Amino acid sequence: MPDPIKVVFFQRKPFDFHKSIEFIFDDVRHRLNGKITPVKKVVSWYSKGVVERIKILLEANKNQGDVNHITGDIHFAAILLNKNKTILTVHDCGMLSASKGIKHALLKYFWFTLPLKKVAIVTVVSEATKAELLKYVKYNEAQIKVIPVAVSEEFTYQPKVFNKQKPVILQVGTKPNKNLNRLVEALKGVSCHLQIIGVVPDEIKKKLAQYNISWSSKADLTDAEIVAEYKNCDLLSFVSTYEGFGMPVIEANATGRPVITSNILSMPQVAGNAACLVDPYDINQIRSGIEKIINDDNYREQLIQNGLVNCCRFNADHIAQMYFDIYNQIAQII
Known about the structure:
alpha/beta; Rossmann fold; 2 domains; six-stranded parallel sheet; 12 strands; 42% helix
């Protein structure tokens, strides 16, 4: 039998707050070990500054395998790799939507336009990310494969009696796109406890106090501690204004918790019929959706049951196999 394909996974040097990409591909490597020879190559420099990024380019060039997989963020690392043997994963285009002028032009060229010319296949985590990518870059759609993010097996169904008098609402993340400010506005007058994962900005703390909202926060949690937060909550609020995928929706589905999320970008595709969809820019819609989940027992239970079905679409073995099929395809290119 031929030796397994050597797949080199090029990953960013992570800052303390980086976790998502690392988790995704640690799991893929684990599930494909034996079917491929996986090599995890974390680049030696942080992606900041021209000199460091040139060093990343050169390091990637010297560490190629039968298949090269740029797993995200450091897209530019593909530039000096063997085009026919290289895959690039794009998780979102947030850096482009958040930039303007010269910075936007540089990011677009070195993180998207040029790297896409230097790879055989691009994978994206959602149809929404694919559509957004094609808005910025002209590219052959046939070379873009949608492979969603797998839900961790740590998230399992945990039945819980819903606390209608004072439900615990879980909010994952505090960056501006997580829309915490509007969520706090929407919770004014709603009997609940808001449990926040992340560092809460001072202006949000002031608003929570002003509206007399019961709340607490935790940061730098382990994976097990994050799972526990899902189990302890009554519902998940994830009304982001921007997401490339939206993993918390599926994690709540798998745990058996009702979800309210945004009706834009990737979130409706990820949630399907397993979440209350609202306009994240409309505070009244957010409030009404939360109150419906709290007060309508039948609706809430239907969301929970739909969620348990929905999370099956994100089975980790199936998603790993999707990557394996692409690795095989690339390895056969001469």
